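So, can you check what follows?
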Amino acid sequence: MDLKSGYPYWAIKNGLMCAFPRLEQDIRCDVAVIGAGVTGALIARALAAEQLDVVVVDERDIAWGSTAASTALLQYEIDTHMTDLAHRYGEGPAALVYESCASAIGMLQDIAAEVRDVGFASARSLYVASRWLHKRALRREYEMRSSHDIDVEWLGADEVRERFGVQAPCAILSSVAARVDPYRLTSRLLRRLSRRGVRIFDRTRVERLDVSGRQVVVHAEDMQIRARHVVMATGYAAQKWLRDCVAANRSSYACATDPIDREALGPWRDTLLWESARPYFYARPTDDNRLMIGGEDDAIDIPALRDRRLERKVRRLERRAEKFFPDVPVKSAFAWAGTFAETPDGLPYFGAHAQYGPRVLFAMAYGGNGITYSALGADLLAASIKRRRHPLAALFGFERSHR
């Protein structure tokens, strides 16, 4: 394969930005966050802002799991249509999810400005109908979003072609979206938190939890962390801690081109693209003028088998890209694959599970909006630990599975 494959683009671009020590003694804290990816970093930030004593541990180097494989399309639009969520939970809750996700883009922008130099940029999002059969569903989706004052524009086939050069039956253009370098965001945020007193340990594997009414003892190899609360923020791997199966692991494939002349990128300089087909193709620009494209998701949950499929999947992605970017040279320079988890309704899980009780909280930012969900979930978990109500607690909690 005539490209650099096997490592995510962010890892190749940034290298190992920072490292932290292993845990080598027993310690105590208010909250132990297990997982030092972007979800764990955002949660640690929210908890530290509550003046809590926070410890973060990860079995890898920080940000080296799903965070490094993320393509980081920051959208309020989740994989499940607002109309479908409304059918399942009611229009009010569906609107709350979408409006909250839109506010999360602003939250992430503020965090990026605080941390600085993380490749954050505001963007638009173009949601394209893959076939004529999808036009009616997209129109209903547009009308429901509009009725809740979400800033969207309806584009017919002629407008999509004239403004974006894409042949499609129709599209929804959203003004609220963004992009970021997730590996850089996580690394810089954790380094900043470390300077402010958050203790961070990488290459430290958690083996079991002993939960009592007053504390949780985290057994990390030969060491112990005694914490009032634990947050499990280990991505798709968090499911191994639960008896219940709450999500399905899937594989996704992505690649990035060599830098492209900004003029040649045209409207894609500041536009994210995704489509109504499932699994969907998606694309976005990077801060160094590449196109990052991805999709071709499948149900494979065996890393070796997933990686053997990479070359074939990337060639399919390139062919699909030609449909959307006929005037842009799309030739992969970097390619990678990763595992992600998907819930039946497209919503995440943040909160306590009956298996462990209130002292162990889970942060499962699953689906295509993991970073957006993590920004919301960080505030939700901080509120839970401080015993405050949060408007998303019921919708993002495990209890909704029984509704």
Q: What stands out?
A: Residues 77-179 form one domain. The two ends are 48 Å apart (CA to CA).
